[in-house]
Request: fold
Amino acid sequence: MRPAALIFDVDGTLAETEELHRRAFNAAFKEAGLNWVWDCSSYGDFLRTTGGKERIAAYANSVGTKAIDISTLHRRKTEIYRAMMASTKLELRPGVKRLIDIAYKQSIRMAIATTTTRSNVDALIAATLGGRVENWFSSVRCGEDVTHKKPHPEVYERVLRDLSIPPDQCWAFEDSRMGLQAALAAGVPTVVTPSLYTQTDDFSGATLILRDLATPYSAVVSRGQAQLAAVPGPLLALL
Reply:
C-alpha cells in the first residue's frame, strides 16, 4: 500500500550525527571544568537514555557529581554542536535525500518525530537540505514537545495528530531499538537502518531492516521478524 506519510527520526536516521553530538558533549564538559570524557565505546550505552539533558543527568548521578546546572550545560553543548555542524560538511545517510525528493514530488507528506531539540533539527535540515525545516516536513515534533521521550510513543502520537493520518497508513524510519519501540507502540510500521552506535540493537518487530536506504534489494539485511520477502513494493519504488 502506498504510504500516506513518511515519519523520520533524526539523529542516526537522517544523518550520522551521534559522533558529532559526542564530541560536543565532551567539549561542553571540558569548558565547564568537568573531568568527564565520553569515549566511543561507552557512548553507545549512554544513548539508551533518550534526550541530551536526561543523558547528562543520568551520568552525573552515576558518578556522584552534584550541583551542576544541567540545563545550562546542555544549552552550551547544543551551541557547540551547531557550530561544529556549521564547520563540518555533514551529509545525509545514503538514499535519504533521494527518498525525500521522490516523496516530495509525489506529494507524500513527511514529518519528523525526534527527541532531539528543535534547534538541532533546524541546523541539520539547513545544512543538508537547505531552507527551513517547514519547507519539507508537514509536522516537526521534538524533545521540547513531549513529556515522555522515546521509547514512549508520545512524539509519534503528536505527529499523527498533526497529520490526521491513521498510523497504519504511515511508515516510520528509525535507527535504534528505542525509536523502533516508540513507533511500534504508536502503531506505525517501521523501517530500520541501523547506525554507527546501534548495530547490535534488537530490532524485532520492524517491518524491514536495511543497511541504508540506498541498499539494493539483494542486500537487504534479514533480522528479527524482517524477511526479504516482506520488502514492501511501494518502498522499493520510492527508493
